[in-house]
Amino acid sequence: MTVLPDDGLSLAAEFPDATHEQWQRLVEGVLRKSGKDVSGTAAEQALSTALEDGLTTRPLYTSRDAAPAVGHPGFAPFVRGATPGGNAATGWDVRQRHASTDPARANEAVLGDLENGVTSLWLGVGAHGVPVSGLARALDGVFLDLAPVALDVGAEFGPAARELLRLYEAAGVPKESARGTLGADWLGHEARSGEELDPAEAVELARLCGREYPGLRALAVDALPYHEAGGSAAQELAPATHGRRLPAGADRGRAVGRGSLRAAGVPLRGDRRPVFDHRQAPRGAPPLGAGGGGVRGE
């Protein structure tokens, strides 16, 4: 049996703290072996990486580096979440993407994932997955008041949204209990397909959510089309911060929430871009937490 000393056990107590200058000297030695005779700050700069848009990442960040204030959850700059409660009330959200075009097969996969730890669904609809007419079949057996649904839909976001709202009503889900995203992203669809859509329907959906569905978000931002077109990280973020255009006369406060998509909780999607890292769990998600919470019994 090991007996700790009265003052505890600190394995590094006899070693002095390493300094930034010591680390720089180690870097200098490594660089000299590669033929670069630099020292001090120049050695550190030699390991820095220049990114697109004039950004530079350094090889080492410490507590000496100043960082902007992160604020509080639910308040600007919203880096700690869009709501004051953050994730404290609901915990982690394990969301699985489903893009099957067959409603029956999609339903089988959805129920299987919910029984094994997934807590919400990212469902492709229309050109991205099941037809709008098959949405009810794909979600058959799902407790819609427990499992949030985020629609991934292109030009058919209006019909898909209305069908999901109909399913909430048919299932007896109170409007305040509905959770998810209706997936209206007309600019993303235009960037991907070249087809221009009228945003008026998206604005009406956003107003409807603002009035009656506090847990639903009408708008979504998909950065993937901009990434696939060769956009840089900052260019991918641009649609989320500056690129959302609403018709003249629209009530922007109602539509997007105080003029800020982040404040309104609009999900930013970039499912293949590490800068967002919102890629979904692979098929057969790990059983995190109690499974089956969003599945109806027989």
Topology:
Blueprint: H1 20-33, H2 41-46, E1 49-50, E2 56-57, E3 95-98, H3 103-115, E4 120-125, H4 135-138, E5 149-153, H5 157-170, E6 180-184, H6 186-193, H7 200-212, E7 216-219, E8 221-222, H8 224-228, H9 233-241, H10 252-256, E9 268-269
Parallel strand pairs: 3-4, 4-5, 5-6, 6-7, 8-9
Antiparallel strand pairs: 1-2
Q: Care to describe what's here?
A:
With 298 residues, the chain is an alpha/beta fold. It is built from 10 helices and 9 strands. It has helices at residues 20-33, 41-46, 103-115, 135-138, 157-170, 186-193, 200-212, 224-228, 233-241, 252-256, and strands at 49-50, 56-57, 95-98, 120-125, 149-153, 180-184, 216-219, 221-222, 268-269. The strands form 3 sheets. Strands 3-4-5-6-7 form a 5-stranded parallel beta sheet.
Any idea what the CATH superfamily of one domain is called?
Answer: Methylmalonyl-CoA mutase
| Residues in β-strands, percent | 5-15%
- CATH topology (fold) name of one domain: TIM Barrel
* Number of helices, counting only DSSP H or I runs of 4 residues or more: 10
The helix content, as a percent range, equals: 25-40%
Spatial order of the strands forming the largest sheet: 3-4-5-6-7
Give me the secondary-structure category: alpha/beta
Features:
11% strand, TIM Barrel, 9 strands, 298 residues, two-stranded antiparallel sheet, alpha/beta, 31% helix, 5-stranded parallel sheet
